[in-house]
Amino acid sequence: MREVPEVPEPTGARPGRGPAGRMPFQVVEVTGPSMVPTLYHGDRLLVHYGARVRPGDVVILRHPFQQDLLVVKRAAERRRGGWWVLADNAFAGGDSTDYGTVPEDFVLATVRVRYRPPKKGQRSVGDVLAWAVSAVRPVSAARSVSRRLRAR
């Protein structure tokens, strides 16, 4: 995942404000398949820094073993020592099943909206209208992760 246009520093974050006193909202771009089918490679996300995290929220966090890498996962549950996060794509890996509980300080933002850029070659009115209807969607905690947790 990469931020557009820059990666924020984790210091100075306050509730209601972004990192180092910036505005609390920022746009990031998804790279990789770990959140398919909720998010796809190339999707843009509007994220809210300093927002309260609830179980089921899609969040942006620093990777526990490589803090300069930002990842997007679903916050499954709060545990002692932080958050248990899961990828929506169980086959992609790279979540708490690999690296354990993520410290709460590593969870930077919650995802509010997903935006899919138009595909090249969408020119007909029907194509453009179909894209416009499906391009922007809120990312909610509605997708339950409890089914996956019970299966383990």
Structural commentary:
This protein is α+β, with helices and mostly antiparallel strands and 152 residues long. Helix content is 14%, strand content 34%. The chain is built from three helices and eight strands, in the order ββββββαβαβα. Strands 1, 2, 3, 4, 5, 6, 7 and 8 form an eight-stranded antiparallel sheet that branches. Strand 4 and strand 5 form a beta hairpin. It is elongated. The relative contact order is 0.19. The N terminus and C terminus are likely disordered.
Layout: helices, strands, pairs:
Layout: E1 2-4, E2 25-29, E3 44-49, E4 58-63, E5 66-79, E6 82-86, H1 96-99, E7 107-115, H2 125-135, E8 136-138, H3 146-151
Antiparallel strand pairs: 1-2, 2-3, 3-7, 4-5, 4-7, 5-6, 7-8
Gist of the model:
This protein is an alpha+beta fold and 152 residues long.
Rounded average pLDDT? 80
Q: Between the first and last Cα atoms, what is the distance in angstroms? A: 27 Å
From the alpha-carbon coordinates, what is the Rg to the nearest angstrom? 16 Å
Helix proportion range:
10-25%
- Helical region count? 3
Silhouette? elongated
SSE pattern: EEEEEEHEHEH
Keywords:
eight-stranded antiparallel β-sheet, 152 residues, 3 helices, elongated, alpha+beta, disordered N terminus
